[in-house]
Amino acid sequence: MSARVNLDELLAAFEWVSASEAAAVDCNAYVSKVTGKVHWSGEGVEEELPEDIEDGSAYVAVPHKTEFDLGRSLALRFVEERLPRSYETVHQYFGKRGAYSRFKALLESVGQLEAWHQYEQSAIEEALRQWSEENGLTLAR
Fold it and tell me: What are the residues facing 29 on neighbouring strands?
């Protein structure tokens, strides 16, 4: 039987880990394969990690968003599906700094920003579901 992990808590941990790069701090989270509890580490976290946190048979590190390829390629898939005429423009955005701000400005100008957020959230949840299964965890709400 696999440990049950709360999806909302796992999503929060995923955001925490993924934001660490932008914040220039080391943020990690781990899920117990036995209890499903999420353990957090990083600046401002009071919790002390279990001593055996490095034991891969007992804990699994929550992945960073780059491990799921949910950045540029996801944005381009969205554009290809919803705004095919803008594909080349958006593809060029991702060759330069500030791509996401230009991408989101474009989406806002054509009324697709909320659709993008839903698309991205759905892709994240699906990736976390698959990751959980691969690591012997069951997601619950």
Answer: 40
